[in-house]
Design a protein that fits this description.
Two copies of one chain form a homodimer.
Chain A: E1 4-8, H1 17-29, H2 43-46, H3 50-57, H4 72-80, E2 83-90, H5 95-108, E3 117-120, E4 130-133, H6 136-139, E5 145-149, E6 161-163, H7 166-175
Parallel strand pairs in A: 1-2, 1-4, 2-3, 4-5, 5-6
Helix pairs in contact in A: 1-3, 4-7
Protein name (chains A, B): 5'(3')-deoxyribonucleotidase
Pfam family, one (chains A, B): NT5C
Family (chains A, B): Belongs to the 5'(3')-deoxyribonucleotidase family.
């Protein structure tokens, strides 16, 4: 029988987008936002200057140098034993990020083949059994079962199954086997 | 009611990949392959030196400078009236192509938003009502109804609904309304 499929988001799930964005945005804007100070805010509320945000995200090397989330590598490798894994990132808004994301995956997740990488816009047409993502804009409209990965902007959302870290994600998914 | 969705391939469907590849491959290899001489051959049979092929496809500007297929722009615009259009290109094998494909679409198809662009590997998890593509490796495994766009490598394949050009594609799809 074919393995069940999982689509896994990159920013905020595999990659620690939040830390890197805080650092780069604070440097560019002269603010001193912290992980604590943005808890429960939307991205727009936390990073108010949208033009600056876009500029930061379009900088060479921003996505290429993102830190890996704790336990992400071992967890995805573990899940790959029993599931087919697709990496699905909403990336076409930021063209500079595209090749950087593929290179980042090749470095940190070399066991993910190019065939299983999807750089897209809307995730509405991605058909997998599960989607692990931090954004309601993706989770609310996905075809498979949504699994919400905790991030500052979703801590007050309660309408999806939540996992707080990669160990919880593996436990939840392995329970479905 | 939501519009039905169409996934449209880029190389060989929106973009005249064949002409550009013949020109670049012949220049690099000293061969004189023509559109006529490769009819009915697979890509591997037509372009025998796989390493050279990969080198050609990884060159800066190869994908950015592809000619647009005849009637493609007007046809996609016409289809957009009654369908939601997604551009779905198997591109993650060639990272250089990723940003070039987005820029190419922005130039020639500015009416396609970034949300509707998918750069992927396998198209098995793309769920649209139709897929217009030239490759059986995509058409054979797609979730929606496959529509085969004629290309040198598929002229002897008879197991999918075939369209020979963009005018035929529009006619076939508008008939489904």
């Amino acid at each position: 029988m074919n393995k069940k499929t999982i689509a896994i988001d990159m920013d905020g799930v595999l990659a620690d987008f939040e830390s890197q964005l805080l650092e780069h945005y604070n440097t560019a804007y002269g603010t001193s936002l912290t992980k604590e100070s943005i808890q429960g805010l939307s991205e727009d509320e936390a990073f108010k200057d949208r033009d600056l945000l876009v500029k930061v995200l379009n900088k060479d090397n921003f996505f290429r140098s993102l830190p890996v989330m704790p336990d992400a590598i071992e967890s995805v490798r573990e899940l790959q034993k029993n599931f087919e894994i697709f990496i699905v990132s909403a990336a076409t808004e930021f063209p500079v990020s595209l090749a950087e994301k593929v290179a980042w995956l090749a470095e940190h997740f070399p066991f993910i083949k190019w065939e299983n990488i999807v750089l897209c816009g809307s995730k509405r047409i991605i058909k997998t059994d599960y989607l692990i993502d931090d954004h309601c804009k993706n989770l609310d409209y996905c075809i498979g079962k949504p699994i919400m990965f905790t991030a500052f902007h979703n801590i007050n959302k309660t309408h999806h199954l939540r996992v707080n870290n990669w160990k919880e994600a593996v436990a939840v998914l392995n329970e479905t086997l």
